[in-house]
Design brief:
Layout (H helix, E strand, L loop, with lengths): L1 H26 L13 H7 L12 H9 L3 E14 L3 E15 L5 E5 H4 L2 E7 L5 E10 L4 E6 L21 E6 L7 E16 L2 E9 L11 E3 L5 E8 L7 E5 H14 L5 E2 L2 E5 L2 H6 L8 E6 L4 H4 L7 E5 L2 E2 L3 H9 L6 E8 L2 E8 L1 E2 L2
Antiparallel strand pairs: 1-2, 1-4, 2-3, 3-6, 4-5, 5-6, 7-8, 7-10, 8-9, 9-12, 10-11, 11-12, 13-20, 14-15, 15-16, 16-17, 16-18, 18-19
Length: 366
């Protein structure tokens, strides 16, 4: 009984398996299976079309940045350095540097800092979209730390809109764009803290700088400081390493004026009379034998300069220059900076042995 039941089960199992194989053989050629594993995330992102970000009215900073970002460039330089070593003798090697700049016209002229491109043998200009071009220095001005670079063989390029730095007031938005520490096209935001700051950095005296708390770090130099409308109001230049929240920029009116003159002649012609004035203090007044500490005196004198040739002496107290009364050293600087090369300036001085009047011929600063 048991053997007969087992034999029956085996027969039904065998019949079922046979039917399954026959059905599978008929269906398999008629079934089509497709498998698409999809692209890897990075590949999909690389091939996906770029969608321009939508900037709303409630995002004024982002809107301002979008107006100027395509004109901000990284400037990479290669410099040749020659050094005399007492053991190895004369050594020559190359160093690299990096800074920022902003395109100011469609012909590819870029304003940057003079210290960014000073002594550069090779210049590479890199745009936000990755395009790279060679550049050359048109000219630079050490006094203002402004330089002009020409992008070579680039065709027509986008240019930034320039604002009016003379109208700036403390509290306005200030947006710095640049290449700090190699982080390309970084944006930082702050406000204008002050206008007309004078800052001494080593042997370079910057005058009338824009002060801002927008973060400016090494590599930002030469990049634009823009207002809330995306217009360039300054060229980032100075970082105070001993302070936080203090950065400085050259007013765009000054930078553009220097750039225009560099484009015309390749250099800046400055008036010069060959003297340095300093304000009197009670101590210097006593040393010079004077009762009053009012006014300024000749602290340094170039022996071959126009002032020395006109009879000016170290220690002379300047009472007037070019017909303008002098009460402090800024008065002297204003007269000289506003003079024309070749112009004659009348000077009135006081000395221990009496007064002196003379005439100084303004020449080009050597």
């Amino acid at each position: 009984m048991t053997m007969r039941r087992q034999s029956g089960r085996f027969w039904w199992i065998t019949l079922g398996m046979t039917a399954s194989f026959l059905l599978g053989g008929w269906l398999a050629p008629r079934i089509r299976i497709e498998w698409n594993p999809g692209r890897l995330p990075n590949e999909a992102m690389a091939q996906a079309p770029r969608v321009a970000p939508i900037v709303g009215a409630d995002e004024p900073v982002a809107r301002a940045v979008s107006q100027v970002l395509d004109t901000v460039v990284n400037i990479d330089t290669v410099n040749r350095v020659v050094q005399d070593d007492w053991f190895f003798g004369r050594q020559e090697y190359r160093t690299t540097g990096a800074g920022s700049g902003v395109v100011i016209d469609t012909r590819g002229h870029v304003i940057t800092n003079q210290h960014v491109v000073e002594g550069a043998e090779q210049i590479r200009v890199v745009f936000p979209n990755g395009r790279r071009f060679r550049g050359r220095v048109v000219g630079g001005d050490r006094d203002t730390d402004v330089a002009l670079v020409q992008i070579l063989n680039a065709g027509t390029l986008p240019a930034a809109q320039l604002g009016d730095s003379k109208r700036l007031v403390p509290g306005q938005w200030a947006i710095a764009i640049g290449n700090p520490y190699g982080y390309q096209h970084t944006v930082t935001v702050g406000v204008v803290g002050h206008t007309g700051r004078a800052v001494q950095v080593e042997d370079r005296l910057y005058s009338k700088l824009i002060q801002t708390d927008a973060a400016i770090n090494p590599g930002n130099s030469g990049g634009p400081l823009v207002d809330i409308h995306g217009k360039v109001i300054g060229i980032n230049t100075v970082v105070r390493s001993d302070a936080q929240g203090l950065g400085f920029a050259i007013p765009i009116d000054v930078a553009k004026g220097i750039a225009d003159e560099l484009l015309r002649s390749g250099r800046i012609k400055r008036p010069w009379i060959g003297l340095v004035a300093e304000d009197l203090t009670p101590r210097t007044a006593r040393y010079l034998g004077r009762d009053s500490a009012e006014g300024c005196y000749v602290e340094q004198l170039n022996r071959r300069g126009p002032a020395a040739q006109a009879g000016v002496q170290p220690g002379d107290v300047i009472r007037s220059l070019g017909g303008r009364a002098v009460r402090r050293k800024q008065d002297v600087e204003a007269v000289v900076n506003g003079a024309r090369i070749g112009q004659k300036l009348q000077i009135v001085l006081e000395r221990q042995d009496g007064g002196y009047k003379g005439e100084i011929v303004v020449i080009e600063k050597p």
